[in-house]
Design a protein that fits this description.
single chain; 692 residues
Amino acid sequence: MSLDAQGLYHPSHEHDACGVGFVAHIKGKRSHTIVEQGLTVLRNLTHRGAVGWDPKLSDGAGLLIQIPDRFLREEMARLGVRLPPAGQYGVGMVFLPRDPASRIACEYEIERAIKEEGQVLLGWRDVPVDNSDLAEPARRIEPVIRQVFIGRGRGITVTDALERKLYIIRKSSGHAIQALRLKHGKEFYVPSMSARTVCYKGMLLAYQVGEYYLDLKDARVESALALVHQRFSTNTFPSWDLAHPFRMICHNGEINTVRGNVNWIRARQGAISSPILGADLHKIWPLIYDGQSDSASFDNALELLVMGGYSVAHAMMMMIPEAWENHTLMDPARRAFYEYHAAMMEPWDGPASIAFTDGRQIGATLDRNGLRPSRYIVTDDDLVIMGSECGCLPVPEEKIIKKWRLQPGKMFLVDLEKGRIVDDKELKDSLASARPYAEWIERIRDKLDEVESDKTTPIKSKVRLLDRQQAFAYTQEDLKFIMQPMAAAGEEPVGSMGNDSPLAVLSDKNKTLYHYFKQLFAQVTRRCGSRCRSRCSISTRWRRCGISSATPAASSRPSSSTSPTPWPGARPRWKRASLRSPRRPRTRCARAIRSSSFPIAWWTASAWPSRRCSRFRRSTSTSSARACARRPAWWSRPAARAKCTTLRCSGAMAQKRCIPILPWKPFFHFIFKTGLRPRRRSRAMSRESARA
């Protein structure tokens, strides 16, 4: 349903800034009143959403509730289908194309996946809707909405196992439908497929959700929780599939680190393992499709962790950790918990307020900067109400026993099975003490700051320093504001926004390669934070590891450093090897690779004299230059697949008049695609590294 990239629009720029809330009964008591109250909260968040040129054309709204077993059992009985007991079947809410041929193909792939996974297809149900009040553009792309009922097969004895099978069915059928490349294939989407929850959402206004889905008017639709969302999309176009809630979350804010988060998940694909998902793990890839919003990407990543055996609270703490590194008063066990998981998952930084549920627990959390408001109240009749602002559900003052707000990095959790609110400290202390994280860290971590090193004599070049700086287009500003702070104090260079120099492609000056790729900037404005707030929540420490099971894996040794540069201080000892052939490296544990280079005459028509490089013939053709650039990736294959832990790409000398660092990108993409990136540390050496 989403648009293809065109002009200045790209699907990767999808962000959300919305209204979010939930209503839940602490004791887990189901009633239709909870559903009605959830719709009331949604209507009171109308002003947090957006509309188009047509006042009825919304960015999207929706409601997620527990499966109304009594209602669905009676409705399916009318169709001649007898449902198993609650928890032994799942319900999939499916958006299907309006084109009959495409719709039949999508239904066939779902049924095929159900059969392949050894589960039982119980039947289909058409979801009754009333689209009379929809805007014409929304009605034009309105999908056919059906529910598929799936019974558990042999060997499935608990609901958690059925949840995982439903997850695999949804992912594998979705991949198969994408592979068919149907004309209307983008209209296919599965808002939910679960044995515990069901999602009603669409390109609707807040008040239209209860009017459009006729199921929600039925008094037999009962739930102990109702998670609601009104969407205000930024840098995006509205669509039926991008409306919230998603399968486990709804989100107010933006995930500004989403590109890096998604890239690292793709890089770790080869390192991820799960004893619970087992052989089914390969069926979920790709985990995140291109063009999904930041919220949809977050939901997919959270879902993988939960299906892999993490509790929803544990997974949320991994993805949105509190500011722990500079928190001197934090309990050591909790610090060890965060430090261990920091090597497995980079923070999904906001500003973000995220409400989440797995059908048994429901909660909300703020990111560590805490720049999105969320407040909650608890009543004397065991009702908890959370919303983006106060007053989303009118409650008499005398019934309120507690009022409070979400705090930065803190988590608010309601356990419906245990019938109580779990305190943030109790929750995090229990998870931190569940396993010996501090012992694991000390046993398997490599601290690059403590690597044994040799103090070698600096190599003196025959070329003057000024000539070398000019050859690589260094400026006085580079030396003063970038190189000097990094060399003197090991600090990451920081400067204010604003650059009045012309774009590299329009400049009449010689520019380096990286000047042509520096036009990406923050597209979300944020209010200024205090120095103290930034100091607590921002860190220059970096870590690398792979996501595995809950126990440390020998093949995924995390490494960390407190410096922006990977090797602060003296030069470490390297076991050198030159990979001259992709067939046989000189040593099995090669840690350095050759760097290819080609004449600068290919890149720019400068007045520099043409020179031949040591291995490659001079050429001005793009194909030859591309082949030269890709060669290090082929040379590095034996070393990357051997038992070496670090790969180094060294640049050429300045007097060769070449582009030494360009081939680093094919090599980097090679170890990303092969899944070797989390298992191999890599280091690039170039005189252009100030802009790398």
